[in-house]
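Prompt: I keep going back and forth on a fold encoding question. Comparing notes only helps if you start from a blank page. Show me how you would write down a chain together with its backbone fold. Please set it down just below, with no commentary around it:
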Amino acid sequence: MKTLKKPRVSVVTAFYNRGALVAESIDSLLTQTLEDIEIIIVDDGSTDDTAARLNDIKDERVRIISQANAGFTSAITRAVAESAGDYVALHGAGDLSRARRLSAQADYLDANDEVGVVGCRYTNDDVVVHLGVTTVERAPLLETFMKGCRISHGEVMFRRTLYDRVGGYRRLFTYAQDMDLWLRMGEFCDYAILPEILYDRRRLSEGVYMSPHAFYMQRKLARVAVECVAQRQKTGRDMIDRIGAAALFLSEPDRTLSRTFTRRSLDFYAVSHHDAGIFMARMGWREWRDHRSFAGLVLAWLATGRKRRHLLGLFLKYRARSRAKRSSFRATHSTPP
């Protein structure tokens, strides 16, 4: 029996109903300049032709795991558990890794022992993210990420030993699982972002940003992950370690989060997703009760009837014109003579 050598990098990904995107996405991994890899793909109970298209891939570096639908966190946890490489590279279902991505990230981790998590510049539907990163961005992970996450969940490579040290993904985090993982890793390592564009993300219509309930849970769980940091620093354990899922009921209300929900409600109204807008406005009021969230409730009331929606439409047009004028003013006055 042939014994396969340990790969340098394990690429892990989880697919659910992405049949049309399988071929191009996986081909971007098979054509990497770094060939010493394994690719572990979990089909999380897809109901379209995803499984069939995955099974059409004929490459000894690819391993397909099929399971009943259990959600992304469960699927990606299983993929990492099955991996054997010293480095683990995440890859979003349907996204594209450019040819040098894996070799560039693995080489950087080889040369920088203090760095445990490395990302790169990437595109969101052809829009470049991290425009200001022209040289390697490197800093203490925890200190930076407490102020805001600097990497997404697709373009990242991390050390497997670090992942095991912090206990991997936590199943409570059905969303924001990456933020929770990075914050726990950040107690032991730096992070880095490479300046080269090495990854292309596809934001699909059924993604988190377009679902009000998913958007709410992602932002709320990300806030819980931040709260857990302070608890671990104080006592060595956090509320999830202590009481599990019940910890969600103990999360502190947050004014910034409330404003995020209220602003998102306006985005939904602007595209006539009135039910989604009403939901987000209510979540903003529930999170923090002030004049902003109350205004969100008033707009939710306007969204509940045809005549009132006309008034809401006039407000949104005024808001859009005002934002355009402010953007134009900033652009004009920020340009050096």
Remarks:
- Residues 282 and 297 are 7 Å apart (CA to CA).
